[in-house]
Amino acid sequence: MFYSLRGTLIDISNLTIAIECAGVGYKCIVTQNTLKELPALGEEVYIYTYLNVREDAMELFGFSKLNELNCFKLLTSVSGVGAKVGIAILSTLSAEQVAIAIASNDSKVLTMAPGVGNKLAQRIILELKDKVAKSQGNLSSTSLTNVTIPVGNAPAAINALFVLGYSKLEATAAISKLDDSMPVEDLIRTALKSMDRRT
After folding, report:
1. Which of 68, 75, 109, 130 lies at a CB distance of 3.0 to 4.6 Å from 95, suitable for a disulfide?
2. What string of H, E and C letters represents the secondary structure of 50-64?
C-alpha cells in the first residue's frame, strides 16, 4: 500500500520516527541502522516503507535503504519471525551482514540479535537458503547471454545479493565481472557499488 515516504522529519523516539507529508504525520518503526542514516529534525527525509497489517493493529515500518526493506520482508517470511524480531535483527546487523550469514550458513551471527536464540537462527538460515534456492532455480534456466557463470566464492555472494532483493540475473551479471577468489563480503560490497539501484 505504501512504497515510500518523503517529508519532514518531525519526531524521533527510540525506534520510532514521525514524518509529516502534506500535513499528515506518519509514525514509522525503524531499525537502529536507519536511525543512523536520518537527517536532523526539521529536515527532509526519504524512507522505504512496509505496512504490516494484523488483526489488532496496522504498523508502518521505515527503512533508509531498499536492501534493508527487502531483507526485512524475507526475514519476516520465516515462521516464528515477526516484525519485532526482524527489526531486532536489522538493528543489530546490517542487511549485508544478514545476507552473508545466510549465504555462509552462519547462524551464530544471527544470535547476536535480542530475541534470537540458536534454534530460531538455524530455522532462519534453513528456510531462507531453501527459499533462495527455489526462487533462483537453475542458472541455466535464465538467459545469461555473455555472462560467465561464476565459481569460487561467487555463488554465496549471488545468494546474498538475492536476499538483498536483486534478481538472479542482476546478481550473476554483477558478480561475474569480479574475481571469484575475493572474500564473499568484498564481492558483495563491490557488486553493490557497481549496481545502479539505490541500496
Report:
1. 68
2. EEEECCCCEEEEEEC
